[in-house]
TrEMBL record, chain A:
It is a multi-pass membrane protein. This is Cytochrome c oxidase subunit 1. It comes from the Bacteria. The keyword Translocase applies. Residues 11-524 form the Cytochrome oxidase subunit I profile domain. It catalyses: 4 Fe(II)-[cytochrome c] + O2 + 8 H(+)(in) = 4 Fe(III)-[cytochrome c] + 2 H2O + 4 H(+)(out). Its EC number is 7.1.1.9. The keyword Heme applies. Cytochrome c oxidase is the component of the respiratory chain that catalyzes the reduction of oxygen to water. Subunits 1-3 form the functional core of the enzyme complex. CO I is the catalytic subunit of the enzyme. Electrons originating in cytochrome c are transferred via the copper A center of subunit 2 and heme A of subunit 1 to the bimetallic center formed by heme A3 and copper B. It is found in: Cell membrane; Membrane.
UniProtKB/TrEMBL annotation, chain B:
It is a multi-pass membrane protein. The chain crosses the membrane at residues 30-49, 55-76, 88-112. It comes from Ureibacillus galli. Its main location: membrane. It is found in: Cell membrane. The keyword Transmembrane applies. This is Cytochrome C oxidase subunit IV family protein. The keyword Iron does not apply.
Amino acid sequence: MSSVAVANKKGFGATLWDYLTTVDHKKLGVMYLLAGTLFFAIAGLEALFMRIQLMFPNNDFVSAGTFNELLTMHGTTMLFLAATPLLFGFMNAVVPLQIGARDVAFPFLNSLGFWLFFLGAIFLHLSFFLGGAPDAGWTSYASLSLYSPGHGIDFYVLGLQISGAGTLISGINFIVTIITMRAPGMTFMRMPLFTWTTLITSALILFAFPPLTVALFFMLVDRMFGANFFDHINGGNTIIWEHLFWIFGHPEVYILVLPAFGLFSEIIPVFARKRLFGYSSMVFATILIGFLGFMVWAHHMFTTGLGPTANAIFAVSTMAIAVPTGMKVFNWILTIWGGSIKVTVPMLYALGFIPSFVAGGVTGVMQATAPLDYQLHDSYFIVAHFHYVIVGGIVLAIFGSMHFYWPIMFNRALNETLGKWTFWFFFIGFHLTFFIQHFLGLMGMPRRVFTYQADQGWDLFNFISSIGAIMMAIGVLILVFNIIISAKSKPLNCRDYWGDGRSLEWALKTPVPFYNFKQTPLVRGYDPYWLEKHEGNEEGMTYAEPLGDIHMPNNSVLPLVMSIGLFVAAFGALYHPDGVAWSIPVIIIGLAITVGAMIVRSLKDDLGFHVHVEEIVATEEQLYGKGGNK
Amino acid sequence: MGHDTQVQAKTKAQFEYERHHNAVHMRKQVINFAIMIFLTFLAFAVVVADFSAYFIKPFILLLAAVQVVLQLYSFMHMDDKKGHHIGVIQTFVWFGAVIAFTFFLTFLTIIWW
């Protein structure tokens, strides 16, 4: 298990088996990143198809039905299956290193969370080959989705149920990890901002995903077993779906944007070479955004007729969120102010992020004004707004952090020149695509339409918007090329790649050994690595313990088996309404596989293993040469 | 090694102290249990006694709130001040309670058709 021969080449089969069974947070981080990139590419392609369709009036590149499938899968995939796992990738790769832990609190659950997410995502995407994808929008409003023919919505419900369970499990895991596994001296108010935002995000996941689970379960029994939760003809209420969905859906956008804030709060101080301005107010703002995120969901429903009182309450609570977000923006600007700035690729993304995100925030406050929202609702203005927030906030954070954390995750660096090309193509393309959509919205173009008539003043703007989308695609292709050539480049084998790292993860020499820290570090203040560097500590950290045996978890294939069981059962449930004879047996077999794996997990003691001191010394010598990590 | 069994002999004084401590703890549990049974009885009683619905509904909701607090603090040990991370647990539980109450309130007030 604990092979001394860390750097020895393994065969393809052995490597594959290692990744299928791994519980190592660093490998799971890489897997999240790969899976997230795959789904990002798929959803990006869907967006490109939509923009090609809308490039000219009365275009017939795709049919109306296909367009509905594309827009539904684009939204669903980007939010649940691309942005979430990409951010989980960074959380997995970075957070345990930032807090000085050897792994997450529940490594087994970490692996289970990944496999549930991945198989749920695969299940959802199989809908393209099995009779049509979901087509009721990512919000899947019940009044539409209950009457959607075919199995598209069933794929949506079952796929999201499985992958949502994975996300919930991972969220709980991070809460426990951050609260209980911090190194000695790492008090709450010394935690790096990315760790803080991960904690708050995980808390939001904990409280937001159960309402989604309930909503999806209602939809499941409505569609497959003829219940009437959302069917008003039989006494149900379609508005309940909207409430349940947005009680989940609004915190979901904070689940995505808070880690993005955290990532930029790591990038900016490193390249401004200055301590993060207003650390405690940043923490406070994060908590406040998390709390208010639960109090505003009905602003998505102003036009459903909640009444003026409810609209006013939710309008005011929505505008209140601008206050903590504004605090963050000013803190970032004041961190940069007077710093000795190095404009590397990650910093370029950070500098591009601030004005783009502010633009998205300002249009958000406009929509929070309930009377104005009656004009803006369901127009391209909304599309422009949320793409400014999501692309301008989250996607820029993900791309910037890829460059920033690539040295830690892969012991390779991404090319700076290509990175700048990606940034400029993507950034200009992004503004070209979405800025003009604000005006399309104000001119009255509704969202989610598959085509439009010529000569309404929309032709040129739609054409420009599509050109922008193609530029974004070129930017992403350059990034993919950059990643491929980085795999061929020489390993870095260094510590603190950027030269100005501040938090604990930069104190580690890459490649990071599987146990992360040979001795648990002692954290003596905020920005511990910066502190040690400035006191001339060559090893980058003070140790809290002598070199001793390290207890590590065993690999396990059970998470994969459990997830496959649910994947199989989902097929049974999906075809049950068709009246096929095999549906019930397939459900039973699938659940039996899952429960069987759970029983094995419960009955078979898995106590992990110890890495002995001699093995640690040998591993360090193999990784870093004679004398180990000195 | 983390998984070796440890056998620890207790002194007489330690044994007596823990015995006393356990007895006090048990008494508290039983008293709380009795209170909860009594509150449940009250809830049934007001219904059987046929009071006005405007009294019964808020009264039962009040009793429910008290029961939840008793349940959390007594039987789920949130009153244990020496427990690990008890402050964090209390924060999470009450945060969840506040937002769940918001959902409950809005579902009662703004979904009407």
